[in-house]
Amino acid sequence: MTATRTSVRMARNPVLPGFHPDPSMIRVNGEFVVATSTFQWFPGVTLHRSTDLVTWEPLPHPLTRRAQLDLRGVPDSGGVWAPGLSHVDGTFHLVYTNMLGYNVDGFYDSPNYHVQAPSLHGPWTDPMPLHARGFDPSMFHHEGRSWLLSMQWDHRPGRNRFSGILLQEFDRATRTLVGDAEVIFTGTAIGLTEGPHLLHRDGWFYLVVAEGGTSWSHAVTVARSRNLSGPFEPDPAGPMLTSSGHAGLELKKAGHGSLVHDERDRWFVAHLAARPVDSAGHCVLGRETSIQRVEWVDGWPRVAGGVPATAVAIPDDYPVQQPAPVTAFGPQWQSVRRVPDPSWLSRTERLGAIRLRADQSPASRHDVSLFARRQRALSEDLTVVIDAAPAHFQQMAGLIHYYDSALWHWLQLTHDERIGRCLTVLTCDQGTLIDPLTDPIPWPHEGPVRMRARVDRTELRFAVARPHGDWQPVGPALDARLLSDEHAARTAVAGATGTAVEGFTGAFLGVCATDLTGRRMVCDVLDAS
């Protein structure tokens, strides 16, 4: 339902708070739609719609079947990279990378796929494989024809890994690539050129790319050409948008932009940005989606000051987007690498509850029984009520603050052979397990347990309670900064080969249930708020 407003409103950035990176934005039938990356989280690709750019409604994920997206075993921060959403002739097109493995000093295994649907609500087709030349695919439609773009990865030692932006024609009838791929742009001196999007305006083809990497030097660069295949000349004024070199900005890492306009030729750019929780720059929420106004100056799209603003004026004539109704365990809840099927997650076996069948540990990259939602604010709580009956120390269930398989904090209801039913906490820091408690805490009470995680910027505190009892703190304050891209970045050296592992996701809060005995302990999630 929409209603026309009569006063100016402001969009507050980030408009999609929490882990929502690499936005691809389109406008269809009076609505803005944004697709963002999900990496190792399932279902794949988040979609949000808005009539006013202020309030955003989550839509069903398009990649909901293993046939569309197989994430089992993908590395941390692998999976879906930078989807490209487009619409032409009544059909929605989505292209995406499923990053199966990456090594900055070697190969990237980056197959790209295409799916399509008549509606944002589906049904989305099975995927058509495209190529694995690089990542960050998008589509460009012009005068009845279509093209696929991506960056090209050069694995050869001594070469520029980000070797240029590829363009190849795409046949919509057969959903296949035709002709030869050609490099149309090799980037600017900023380097690390990726994330391409093409648009056409006033006889010019404009190529919008991300440069500078995904961290503090990130930027949006625009180049233009009279010809689709180039040569493309970058804007002489430099990046259209960046946070680099601007110490006082609230939004850091601004980059990876997608331009869109409305029916009155008013332009906006959706881009990623991040909000550090401390002076050291730890971004626990990951990279989030923001928007900015774009003005055309001397034939170039420009953002005021070239920097991201935290508040953006929205045109008065946009219909107000009504907030979506809040539903328990809605599309904001996701699983990690795993299709949420009845073999481990059921919404019907216990009325009003989510039933998890415990499986592998949260350190696994395969079958983890973990159900969680994004942390969306710098300070945020999650309270859950779980019902489980662990009978062995290898059976455990509870509230988890999770970044990836190597970084998490986990409040557990478990069993200890010395004291029986008990509570404990485990921290995983880059794969090493740490016990923040001196001893497990006896919990002789049968039945459901209330658990709370309270994140306040850099600190995480756990607490527990009986169903109607008072909260009791569990353990000391924990370092929430472990769950950040910055902490995730590390280098492992094996002989003469360095393998750089980066973090591209963000913090989630949810429930994890593990059973290494093979008995598949049941954990019922009775409430989450």
Could you give the topology of this structure?
Layout: E1 2-4, E2 9-12, E3 24-28, E4 31-36, E5 41-42, E6 46-50, E7 57-59, E8 79-88, E9 91-99, E10 101-102, E11 108-109, E12 112-117, E13 128-129, E14 138-142, E15 145-153, E16 162-171, E17 176-185, E18 194-201, E19 204-211, E20 219-225, E21 233-234, E22 241-242, E23 252-261, E24 267-274, E25 288-297, E26 300-302, E27 311-314, E28 319-321, E29 333-336, E30 345-346, E31 354-357, E32 369-374, E33 379-388, E34 395-404, E35 407-416, E36 420-429, E37 432-434, E38 441-442, E39 449-456, E40 459-465, E41 472-479, H1 485-488, E42 490-494, E43 497-501, E44 508-515, E45 522-528
Antiparallel strand pairs: 1-28, 2-27, 3-4, 4-6, 5-29, 6-7, 8-9, 9-12, 10-11, 12-13, 14-15, 15-16, 16-17, 18-19, 19-20, 20-21, 20-22, 23-24, 24-25, 25-26, 29-32, 30-31, 31-45, 32-44, 33-39, 33-45, 34-35, 34-44, 35-36, 36-37, 36-38, 39-40, 40-41, 42-43
Which key terms come to mind for this protein?
single chain, 529 residues, mainly beta, Tachylectin-2, Chain A, nine-stranded antiparallel beta sheet, seven-stranded antiparallel beta sheet, 1% helix, globular, disordered N terminus
